[in-house]
């Protein structure tokens, strides 16, 4: 978009600086009289806003204040996020974004992103042309059917693409104008929303089958037609069956990845690799047990099996046998094979049936336990105690989001394991004291990966996303975990260094894309870390002449 002047300039979030417009800018851009006389620095504005945001008691109020800031003054919004990542992440992202989606209808002020519903069928190319930006580098798209661990939130899932893309910019340095949040609305099966007078989406049951895949196909084609073949499409929070089908269908024709399957997988693999620095042994020396065999569970399992297979030079069919999954019907075993969904079949190993997690732990004796069930409080005291009696240092990852769906809390993991566990969770928990010692839980969240992964794909102009690229992203993240981190029980680096971390992930990703011949941005830059950093968006105000 181009810069307006005067009254419209103050109302254009991309260029508005509020009181920070200089005397010269006020003269040149017809702003005289439209602003009070004081001139503020961006730093002072930031200080004022931080004071304001901290005064709100409720996280949802903070969320709304930040969204209003984003719609009023985009650079100031990103300056706040970049300078205060650890404080702001739980507000613009999990857990608060989950609550925001649940209440989206009532807190809704101005639409963000593009809504593409069944009503727009046959017109998606035109819909894309209504968006004010022409150059798009990354799209995050959801259909709202499985928002975090909260289930079907229909059209109100829009909070997720908006939040993820805010992180693309804040954590990965992708220009905000190049980011497009999209929600595909094919209805919702959430009865409560269908009855809610403030619901913002289509008031009908979800379309499925041909009608569903036709709309998605039209969208995928329209994106390529409008924005070219390099625009990255991140699938987010689709229900299991569609998530796997869409990835399978489009991975050979578009640069796509599914954050819940592949982003989460890369983050967890990086965490496990870091944990090995303190546990010792190689990946293949460990035994993994998952609670939850959906997108996250099977996605992580597959990437770990792949890495093991690469390291140990044995076929992936062999390494998969080190990894066990439990779903709602119990341990996934061979005798269940005929009734399993296709994405679970590779995990059906030879074993007698076991009904529940606790007995599975006793039988399998995992060294690493991963929660990817979307169901809170499923790592009970018995579960954690069983893990601690089998292992000197059990690794416990409670990945489900938001906090209410976490398989256990940090406090539970540390107290029930008597301080023995290495713990990480998808949603943040505060550091805590146990027996006079400080424990700092890590946040095993795909937010560590997708911004850097996206940046790496964008700067190299990658036209496809292969598994090798995800392994590179995981290596990039693991490489940023210091010995000092690991000694404190931290298997992830602190988020405050995230822009540097993202640059390293981006560099590894881009390098792999070039090596595999998938990169279209030529020539290949010499120093990819330096190049990634130089491409990053800075939220510092620019001077307008
Ligand atoms: O959004 C998050 O915090 C992580 C994620 O992708 C999910 O839970 O679906
Ligand atoms: Mg997600």
Give an account of the 3D structure.
The protein has about 550 residues and is α/β, with parallel strands linked by helices. The chain has three domains: about 5-85, Hemocyanin, N-terminal domain, CATH 1.20.1370.30; about 90-255, Rossmann fold; about 260-445, 3-Layer(aba) Sandwich (Rossmann fold). Helix content is about 45%, strand content about 10%. The chain contains 24 helices and 14 strands. The protein has helices at about 5-10, 25-30, 40-55, 60-70, 75-85, 85-90, 95-100, 105, 125-130, 160-170, 190-195, 210-225, 240-250, 260-280, 295-310, 315-320, 355-365, 380-390, 410-415, 450-460, 465-480, 485, 500-515, 530-535; strands at about 115, 140, 180-185, 230-235, 255-260, 290, 325, 330, 370, 395-400, 420-425, 430-435, 435-440, 440-445. A seven-stranded mixed β-sheet has the order 8-7-6-9-10-11-14, sandwiched between helices. The chain has a five-stranded parallel β-sheet with strand order 1-3-2-4-5, with helices on both faces. α14 packs across α15 (about 295-310), α21 (about 465-480) packs antiparallel against α23 and α23 crosses α24. The protein is globular. The site of magnesium ion (MG) has 4 residues, from α14.
């Amino acid at each position: 978009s181009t810069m307006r002047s005067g009254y419209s300039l103050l109302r254009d979030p991309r260029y508005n600086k509020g009181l920070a417009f200089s005397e010269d800018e006020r003269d040149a851009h017809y702003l005289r009289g439209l602003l009070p006389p004081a001139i503020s620095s961006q730093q002072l504005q930031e200080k004022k806003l931080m004071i304001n945001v901290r005064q709100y008691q409720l996280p949802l109020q903070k969320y709304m204040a930040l969204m209003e800031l984003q719609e009023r003054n985009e650079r100031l919004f990103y300056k706040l996020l970049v300078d205060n990542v650890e404080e702001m992440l739980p507000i613009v992202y999990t857990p608060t974004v989950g609550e925001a989606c649940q209440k989206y209808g009532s807190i809704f002020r101005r639409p963000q992103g593009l809504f593409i519903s069944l009503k727009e069928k046959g017109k998606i190319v035109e819909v894309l042309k209504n968006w004010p930006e022409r150059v798009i580098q990354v799209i995050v798209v959801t259909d709202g059917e499985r928002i975090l661990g909260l289930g079907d939130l229909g059209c109100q899932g829009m909070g997720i693409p908006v939040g993820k893309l805010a992180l693309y910019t804040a954590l990965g340095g992708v220009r905000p104008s190049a980011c497009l949040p999209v929600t595909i609305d094919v209805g919702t099966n959430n009865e409560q929303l269908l009855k809610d007078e403030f619901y913002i989406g289509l008031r009908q049951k979800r379309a499925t089958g041909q009608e569903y895949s036709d709309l998605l196909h039209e969208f995928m084609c329209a994106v390529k037609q409008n924005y070219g073949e390099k625009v990255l499409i991140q699938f987010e929070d689709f229900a299991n069956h569609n998530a796997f089908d869409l990835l399978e269908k489009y991975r050979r024709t578009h640069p796509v990845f599914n954050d819940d399957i592949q982003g989460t997988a890369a983050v967890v693999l990086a965490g496990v690799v870091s944990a090995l620095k303190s546990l010792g042994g190689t990946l293949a020396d460990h035994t993994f047990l998952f609670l939850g065999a959906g997108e996250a569970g099977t996605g992580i399992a597959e990437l770990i099996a792949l890495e093991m297979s690469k390291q140990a030079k044995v076929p992936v069919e062999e390494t998969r046998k080190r990894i066990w999954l439990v779903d709602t019907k119990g341990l996934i075993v061979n005798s269940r094979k005929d009734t399993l969904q296709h994405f679970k079949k590779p995990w059906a190993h030879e074993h007698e049936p076991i009904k529940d997690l606790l007995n599975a732990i006793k039988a399998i004796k995992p060294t690493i336990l991963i929660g990817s069930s979307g169901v809170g409080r499923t790592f009970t005291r018995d579960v954690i105690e069983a893990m601690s009696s089998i292992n000197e240092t059990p690794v416990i990852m409670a990945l489900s989001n938001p906090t209410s769906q976490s398989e256990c809390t940090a406090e539970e993991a540390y107290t029930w394991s008597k301080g023995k566990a290495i713990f990480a969770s998808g949603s943040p928990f505060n550091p805590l004291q146990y027996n006079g010692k400080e424990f700092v839980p890590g946040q095993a969240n795909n937010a560590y990966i997708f911004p850097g992964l996206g940046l790496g794909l964008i700067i190299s102009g990658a036209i496809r996303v292969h598994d090798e690229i995800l392994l590179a992203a995981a290596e990039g993240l693991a490489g940023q975990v210091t010995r000092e981190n690991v000694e404190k029980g931290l298997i992830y680096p602190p988020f405050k260094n995230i822009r540097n971390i993202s640059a390293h992930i981006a560099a590894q990703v881009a390098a792999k894309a070039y090596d595999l011949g998938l990169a279209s941005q030529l020539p290949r830059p010499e120093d990819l870390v330096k190049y990634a950093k130089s491409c990053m968006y800075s939220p510092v105000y620019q001077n307008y002449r």
